[in-house]
Amino acid sequence: MYIYKAGVVGAGTMGAGIAQVISYSGLPVVLKDVNQELVDKGIAKIREIYDGRVKKGKMNSSDAEQKMALITGTTKFDDFKDVDIVIEAVPEKMDLKKKVFVELDQVLPPGAILSSNTSALSISELGAATKRSGRVIGLHFFFPAHVMKLIEVIPGLATEEEVITDTIAFSESLRKIPIRVAECAGFLINRLLMPYLNEAAFCLQEGAAGLREIDEAAVQFGLPMGPFTLVDNLGLDVCSDVVKVLLESYGNRMEPAALWQKLYDKKRFGVKSGGGFYAYPGGGDDPILKQCIQEAQQVSKKKGTKFSIERIIYPMVNEAVLCLQESVAKAGDIDLGLIAGVGFPQDKGGVLHYADKVGLDVVLSGLEKLYSERGDRFWPAPMLRRMVAGKFLGEKTKRGFFEYS
Asked: Do both 90 and 219 map to the same domain?
């Protein structure tokens, strides 16, 4: 199916960014929110993105105006009657998303694709709220949508194969890199990212290392920013929603550090709230963080543990192995997804190539040591144990997650 016109529900930062990406590809797009003020803010955000491109010399003002002309703002679902695909980008609440899906299902053409930008919620459950579950799919963009290349394409249990193919083609028409991901809590990238972010919080909470020391170690490893800078930009409230979904599905290994809740209770959500792990604007030290760390230590009763870059990277490796074991995604797509969606260092080839380079026996030994010290969140994936037992150790044995000549 060729897509001639698209719609986006939710004109916040993500929705506006997605609408901009669609308009930039040359497609007309309808952008909806609950009132005109929010719609206007969304369109202003899109204009800001185009103005930035003009200032950088990436396009001229005439072309920018032509792209802006492709965007229509609305507060009514009726304006989606002639669109071929809709991307829902409202807050990460299942009941709210279901309500939106029911409304859209009533007005969309029968063949239209109904997609969600959810980062963790069940696509199958969203589809079940409609009368077109076969045409419901996950289409997860990454923040900021106009910059990040990756899109996770997540079929639900009932999603038709044609819809998957059409959605991947649509994503490619937006000049994005789509990867097909099997439905599971957190999908692929958030499943891999959250154990890394959570362990960084445990390190900070336990006094293993300071805030800037942990962030700098991640940057020296090759990541574009440290875990705390990333959380502050994503929004701690958004991360908290994802953690709840992961904890419900995966249990103890996703148990969040107490520090998350202490910051959440004080509404320290990051850049957008004027403070999170750092203070904003400026990114300076936040005195409230020290108080939150002290309160978290009183809950956990743990202090003075040791920090290493492996302590925060190995949980990501381990979760990647679990995803491969569960056929959530192919090995190459796991690596591509982390490079394109998170900025995992390209020179390391992605998280599974990194493990092959280090040696799977070394990774397993490191996880076992951390498990003995820190508990369930470091329990090694069964597939990792099997590979080590079978001498699939990575580059040094010419076979691991990949083969080497």
From this structure: no
Same domain, 204 and 121: no
Q: Is the pLDDT at 387 greater than 90, yes or no? A: yes
Active site residue 140: yes
CATH number at residue 131: 3.40.50.720
Q: What is the pLDDT of residues 198-211, one digit of tens each?
A: 999 999 999 999 99
Q: Mean pLDDT, to the nearest integer, of 220-237?
A: 95
Of 32, 97, 135, 140, catalytic:
140
Say whether both 200 and 342 belong to one domain: no
- 304 falls in which pLDDT band (50, 70, 90)? confident
Are residues 156 and 101 located together in one domain of the fold?
yes
| pLDDT value of residue 379 | 96
Same domain, 154 and 281: no
**pLDDT given at position 245:** 87
Query: Is pLDDT of 301 > 90?
Result: no
Any idea what the CATH number is for the domain that residue 348 is in? 1.10.1040.10
Range of the domain at 236: 189-300
Residue 179 has pLDDT above 90, yes or no: yes
Three-state SS for the chain is CCCCCEEEECCCHHHHHHHHHHHHCCCCEEEECCCHHHHHHHHHHHHHHHHHHHHCCCCCHHHHHHHHCCEEEECCHHHHCCCCEEEECCCCCHHHHHHHHHHHHHHCCCCCEEEECCCCCCHHHHHHCCCCHHHEEEEEECCCCCCCCEEEEEECCCCCHHHHHHHHHHHHHCCCEEEECCCCCCCCHHHHHHHHHHHHHHHHHCCCCCHHHHHHHHHHHCCCCCHHHHHHHHCHHHHHHHHHHHHHHHHHHHCCCHHHHHHHHCCCCEHHHCECCEECCCCEECHHHHHHHHHHHHHHCCCCCCCCHHHHHHHHHHHHHHHHHCCCCCHHHHHHHHHHHCCCCHHHCCHHHHHHHHCHHHHHHHHHHHHHHHCHHHCCCHHHHHHHHCCCCEHHHCECCCECC
Q: Say what the pTM is.
A: 0.91
> Could you say which of 180, 201, 216 is where a domain stops?
180
The answer on pLDDT for 303 being more than 90 is: no
